[in-house]
Amino acid sequence: xxxxxxxxxxxxxxxxxxxxxxxxxxxxxxxxxxxxxxxxxxxxxxxxxxxxxxxxxxxxxxxxxxxxxxxxxxxxxxxxxxxxxxxxxxxxxxxxxxxxxxxxxxxxxxxxxxxxxxxxxxxxxxxxxxxxxxxxxxxxxxxxxxxxxxxxxxxxxxxxxxxxxxxxxx
Length: 170
Prior knowledge:
Blueprint: H1 3-32, H2 34-37, H3 53-70, H4 76-100, H5 113-126, H6 145-154
Helix pairs in contact: 1-4, 3-4
């Protein structure tokens, strides 16, 4: 297989993983898998949370495809797909865990409109503490924050976390 075709498969896999991640986040994590994902919508105590198991689950197909393609004689495309899944995982970790949730401290400040947009969209996702009523399930693509705020308002702010330190709190 040519490097050009391999790279095309790699980047197509990264794009496809955004769809897989959206579907998993929307209908698995905020569905029957809420018992793990709920930990991610609460304050974290310590380095890890139950939700981190989803990273392990997503790594399994990548490991199998890479192992098969590199060591077991499977077709070359399996290596490129495994690498694409791994690439998406690295992007996800960098964006979601490092930049948005600051699980690794950096001095990064978003300057591009794109980064500001997806960070704000993800934060709007987290203002809802419940399984239902959440907005914005993607990681590399998200609706406009204004649209997300309007949708939360339309839903009557159901499940939205009370602001911390509001006037009159005991």
